[in-house]
Design goal:
Elements lengths: L1 H24 L18 H14 L21 H14 L1 H6 L5 H5 L12 H8 L1
């Protein structure tokens, strides 16, 4: 068994790398990043002024632990309106559930497990028939 592992895993890795290389070889887009020229539209002083203004008004806190852009977000719909919209979307989506991308396998996977009947053996039917 150990010899099989020693041969199988390297073979799988080699085949995976070969498949990846073949997939990458299909990309014929030329790499012209070395010849691209980027033009600055702002001076260093302008960028520093924008940074100072952002620090002053507090909009630079994107990396801060207190940054929460959704803290001020409020919904205009009531809970009943959201639930009604959800029910309407689910009713409209019923056809897409069964005929969509996964053909209903996700919906079927969420159903409770079916009951399993007891096994019936060959001898038990003959004994009960007598």
């Amino acid at each position: 068994m150990r010899k099989l592992h020693l041969l199988t895993y390297p073979a799988i890795a080699l085949l995976s790398l070969a498949a990846t290389g073949a997939a990458l070889a299909d990309d014929i887009t030329p790499d012209d990043t070395a010849t691209q020229v980027f033009a600055e539209t702002k001076t260093r002083a302008q960028v520093q002024a924008e940074l100072a203004a952002a620090r002053a008004d507090g909009s630079i806190k994107a990396w801060s632990i207190g940054y929460n852009p959704l803290a001020m977000a409020r919904s205009t719909a009531t809970r009943a309106e959201v639930n009604a919209a959800l029910r309407a979307d689910r009713a409209a989506d019923h056809a897409a559930t069964w005929y969509g991308e996964d053909s209903g396998s996700f919906a079927l996977g969420r159903l409770p497990a079916p009951r399993v009947a007891a096994p019936v053996y060959a001898g038990t039917l003959l004994k009960t028939a007598q």
